[in-house]
Amino acid sequence: MTFGEHEILKWLHIVAMAYWLGGEWGVFNASRQVVNPALTLDERRRHMETAYRIDILPRTGIVLLLPLGLHMGYNLGTQPLGGPWLAGMWVFVAGWLILTWTAFAKRGTDLGLTLTKIDESIRYVVIPALLITGIGSLIWHAPFDQGWYATKAALFAGLLIIGLLLRYIMRDWVMLFRRIAAEGSTPEVEGQLSRALAFGMKLAYVYWAGIITMAFLGVAKPF
Description:
This protein is mainly alpha-helical.
């Protein structure tokens, strides 16, 4: 047995999944202090900065999982699109990663918010494509002819939806903190922050369960 391309892809896939799952736990805990009105605005901003710095790693992992999963699927014969199509996917994702990291570098600015919205808009295309292809393959066994792979694709699309909702929450924090800086803390703004965090925490539990399920499907390939 030789160590080759597929083993490297598998290793990168494991690393991306680990940062996705572990990183989200870090964001989850750092976020608790963002909505704590007992802290000063500067302290809360520091916690928000920590959350953003942790979050860039799962964001990167999520984007990388798309080409890694498709490339490994092609190697395993579970999806038929290879060659130029697969190469084009890697080029597309490289551009997507540059956008993601530029938005991170410009976080808190108007340019950063604009880039973040562009990043989110890419998901509006990727999510339905994965969802339709995954569910369609479960019904018609094409283009993905393995049930576990089709299920994983559909589940990944669902998790991207949850991730998108969590991104909305973090983006709204930036705007709410601008209001606090300009107008001071008010019950209205603090209520918005608390409700957003409570909703995000409920989503996070579903998110983690989905990530763990995806990992199981990839390892066990049960059907």
